[in-house]
Write a structure and sequence with these properties.
The complex is a heterodimer. Chain A has no helices and eleven strands. By secondary structure, chain A is mainly β. In chain A, strand 9 and strand 10 form a beta hairpin. Chain B is mainly beta. Chain B is about 0% helix and about 55% strand. The chains are: A mainly beta, B mainly beta.
Amino acid sequence: TQLLEQSPQFLSIQEGENLTVYCNSSSVFSSLQWYRQEPGEGPVLLVTVVTGGEVKKLKRLTFQFGDARKDSSLHITAAQPGDTGLYLCAGASGNEKLTFGTGTRLTIIP
Amino acid sequence: DAGVIQSPRHEVTEMGQEVTLRCKPISGHNSLFWYRQTMMRGLELLIYFNNNVPIDDSGMPEDRFSAKMPNASFSTLKIQPSEPRDSAVYFCASTPWGRNYGYTFGSGTRLTVV
């Protein structure tokens, strides 16, 4: 069974601060995706990274795929209350089935 | 496109009753997934279909759970009989064929079994 561990599990910071969320596994993935989920809704795709070492930016969010394709990080610069939510990483390997991480619940305090 | 549509949004039922959850995927998406989300276990894949054919049902908890996809625009997840431990949010997601495409999730069905 492939496991994706995310850290921290919970994070509460002030508006304007920077933060990094980690997604780690002992398995190699062909691609990795990040989702954000808000209360009462399903997860929404933020980004897909495919190549080891790849870095993608989405406004204030920076995503990196580890060189060995086993881990990933999400960095948020100058966090805003709208960034609040549950962040989920998900790894794909060989087929369409995604394995989701344990999640990081982020709260940005105004 | 209206996205992935799930119904009902909320379901409260008594233990032992049959529960049917419904999903309409995005038109043109070949693959459909059923997930269950709880605080303790996170998002768990129950079953997924490709071109209406079940590919992997290893996540289905037990025989009380069954899923069907009679056509490309409709799928059901049935629990019979339901038990309190089945209480969770059930999500349906769809995607075009190809592993680099992300999933589009529905808004989920919150099931409470009392």
